[in-house]
Records
---
Amino acid sequence: MLNSIFSGIFDSSAAAVISPGTFLLCVAVSLALGLLLAAAYMYRSRGTKSFVSTVAMLPAVVCVVIMMVNGNIGAGVAVAGVFGLVRFRSVPGTAKEIGIIFLAMGAGLIAGMGYLGYAALFTVIMCAVLLVYNRLDFGTKKAAARCKTLRVTIPEDLDYTEVFEDVFPQYTSDCELTQVKTTNMGSLFRLTYDITLRSAAAEKALIDQLRCRNGNLEITVSRQETISNEL
């Protein structure tokens, strides 16, 4: 009776039939691996509840897809790839989110092929590598604390190409004007610079010098913006 409930209408003697016990075992292992990946992702990272839940469930979903295509790996990978694209259709994902999505899909694919031991080994190794990289802040620039984005508002009568050329060399080792924008009906310029301070303590002194030049108009200093983490 149980076998007839879980049998497919297209099953034949030429096609391998997955038993309910095997199906449940693969799904359970995939869910456990998903939880492990989600926990590794959350270590020193900020993620939304929905994304973390998706990572935890994704290996099981991919595992079921691979099992249901009944050994047709090409079709399975093509279908499973759709799940990886759904996340990035509307909301830009970071490089780390892309990586964890593919790790989850890889673990689910291995489990769906029936290699549960290899799936567990792959997940443990990759989680360990991810934790080590996060712990060591791998890829973080040592000078990141000195890399800033500076926005300065100046009156329209000042020449923005030369107004600060003698100030920046005193407090920065690198400076690049990245954007010029008019504001307040064209009466003001808003300049955006990517700068690298000579020392973190030079930030206030730089702001004081700029205030003297721009008539005490708005000045903003923030962590340097980058698109390297976006898709």
Note: The two ends are 50 Å apart (CA to CA).
---
Amino acid sequence: MSPVDLDHRLRFAVDAAHRAGELALEHARNPEGLGIQVKGVQDVVTLADRAAEQALRTEVAAVYPGDSMLGEEDGLTPGWDGAAPLWIVDPIDGTANYARRLPLWCISVGLFVDGEPVLGVIHNPMTNETHAAARGRGATLNGMPIRASAETSPQRSRINLGFSYRRPQALHVASIDRLLARQCEYSRLGSGALGLAYVADGRFEGYFEPHINAWDVAAGIVIVREAGGFTNDFFAGDARLERGNAILAGAPGMRGFLERTLGDLMEG
């Protein structure tokens, strides 16, 4: 991709995420009409998720007709050849929070090219915060540059932990136990995308989840890396696009600690 094209796509992604966020807010104003459905254990979907993803698909098709999309609700565009740019989208990350009227949810829009995530936008309509980044261009929050935390001590750090029933709960319990044994605090927000955004801007020193889907992290991986943080190679192997993987991300000075403390809990 040329630099000009990447810049244009970043501006497009920011605008599209904002429009999807407004659509989600409109649905949220009528809680009785959210149409909440159960997808799995502690996993729900609403009419807003489906409407926001469809809106994003329509916008991408109109502006970049040669591109494809992988979305949480409607999957991978049929016929994607692996070469065309692939938008990886979670229309509402943190749907359980959204359905409970908690402000910890967001729109996550990432772009995947030549086997790598190259662009990311995470927009929280409730706080009007937009984290954005493109490869080689740094990361921003509402247009202002951000950097990952400079902290190096576990005793002064807080790690955000994710959890799903797709992996044994013992892995989650072990991660908590290991962090507390080293006097390192933890939080759980219920949104992997926001967790990564908050690593990028220094609110957390790390994020860990034994299994998470590509649409939850594609945007955040770029934002964390461009903010000076690190992530594991989440997209190693083609199957990661639809099968998911473990995610470990953090501030640069915490990398050794996080890899030593949590690395063996990362199941493939």
Note: The first helix runs from residue 3 to 28.
---
Amino acid sequence: MEIRFWGTRGSIPAPGPHTLEFGGNTTCVEVLLLNGLRVVIDGGTGLRLLGQHLLEQHDPCRFHLLLTHGHWDHLLGIPFFAPIYRQSTEVIVDGWPPAFQAMTRVFDSHMGDGFFPVAFDHLKARIDYLNNLAHGPLELDGVLIDAIRLNHPQGGLAFRFKEGRHTMVFITDNELGAARGRRIPEFVEFAQGCDLLIHDAQYLPAEIAERRGWGHSTYEEVVALAQQAEVHNLLLTHHDPGRTDVGVEQIVALSREMAAGHSNPHYIDAAREGACFRLP
């Protein structure tokens, strides 16, 4: 399994000289499976870069698109995904059901009230909607994908990929410290013993009091989850748009300091746009 980050920023794109290290594009993660299948998680602005990359390969573009939820920062790249305007492209959408509806509304509805000049039904790509993961696991040629509900306004789903002996868990836009919603033990069980946990760590502990209910976590909450779940490797993502590279590096340093002396996780870093993480 190969996990490549095309967008790691949260809430809104944040391009500029102070976000070059970790990236300014919003959430988009490509997962290449050993069976040759491609899965893309979320359609943030990083999806535009992935589209350029796929066109350069000159191969037919076929993949599963898993949507965690329907907020704009996770859908903004879809209208600018160049392969979606080609008949050879096939996209199978699954994930949080209202997110697919939100995805279609990004485009024009033929009534002039869309946010994009092209109508969804004018796209040349074949786009099919499964609606499996909200009700149970999705199996892709021997790879099992499970889901769990997020603590996030309007709801959403996190995903767990199991390929042979290796497991990757992707949880973005999730408020671990929320008073209501999923309890910590459920997330611990979902991530238990995984090779790689990728989790939203948008805020510092000093920032969270004024942002409770916004649907995001602090690095302390995420490291604690990783320790309880005995996660091997941890990548922090959904970086705040106001967080510079220096600020993200500080969060990584504080997270590593918190984990020092513990057996898990072995490795902690922040997700970087363009970086690739391989599970053998």
Note: The radius of gyration is 18 Å.
---
Amino acid sequence: MTPRAGQAAPRKTKPKPRVRALTPRSIQGAVAGKMPNFVEPCLATLVAAPPVGDEWVHEIKFDGYRIQARVDGGDVKLITRSGLDWTARFEPLPRLLRNLHRGKALIDGELVVEDSGGRSDFALLTADLKGRRSDRFVFHCFDLLYLDGYDLRDAALLDRKAMLRQVIDASSAGEHVRFSADLSGDSASMLAEACRLGLEGLVSKRGDLPYRSGRNGDWVKSKCIQVDEFVIIGYVVSNVSSSAVGALVVGYFDKRQLRYAGRVGTGFSQRIAGDLMRKLKPLRVSDPIVSAPLTNLQRKGVIWVKPQLVAQIEYRAWTGDDLLRHAAFKGLREDKPAAEVRRPTPVGPKQRKP
């Protein structure tokens, strides 16, 4: 078509370049090999403030169960951080994950239940598991360790996440399987916004590093509220019902020594308090199994138990006497052995390397 007089000729637009799809083979650091049955997870170290620097990737911190999804064609297994197979407990999520990828994949993520505001809530998760409700499970995927014949653990995190996002975007797993996206901006401002929204905090990860199992500083967490695991070492009977718990007595391990951390008297309904009593009653012992002597006030009314059950506790701070302040029960953690419970101690903020 010839343009009229005074009319500019139409501009020829260049076609947008096609984005080349990633393949596991094309990722630097990928190693051909068999898919592992289980990989010990990389754990986040608690820090006083989120790290600063372009090498850090920031994500929302979820409040649920750390899960490794092992997808092998039509066979899907959901494995806890300690290697327990909990596939049957989280149906129908395994069935949805069959639509995530038709080949082989090993995905690291967090399984949660969200409240009406979209915030993950561990108390709701434990309540749903107890009540055998399964319609609210959401699996947030944040790392990809293996894909279709290639071990990706030696690849950089940013490359692993890019491959993971491509897998999820191409899947038909539905809204219950989601990609945990990176957050952009100043890390301190991001944490402040997360706290304003009522979230638990941030997890910051080195985007240029491989996946290393254990707690090594590659991943760090900064919290809005304190939520940690404690060992139940005793309980006080409720004033309302003799078959229910009125308060829990908790502690933590310092090396091999069990330390007293105080009482937790809120956070459980009458039904949960009764369920805790049924679990704790068979574990009763005559004396507390703690390393340091307790005062008469700390002992008053307490029925002591073997340190076998782990509770997730929300609290404001530690007192000068190393006791929990304003503590509330959130639920039992069945995925963590009591012997692994340590007192969380924040380290200084991580800064950009010179």
Note: DSSP finds six helices and 19 strands in the chain.
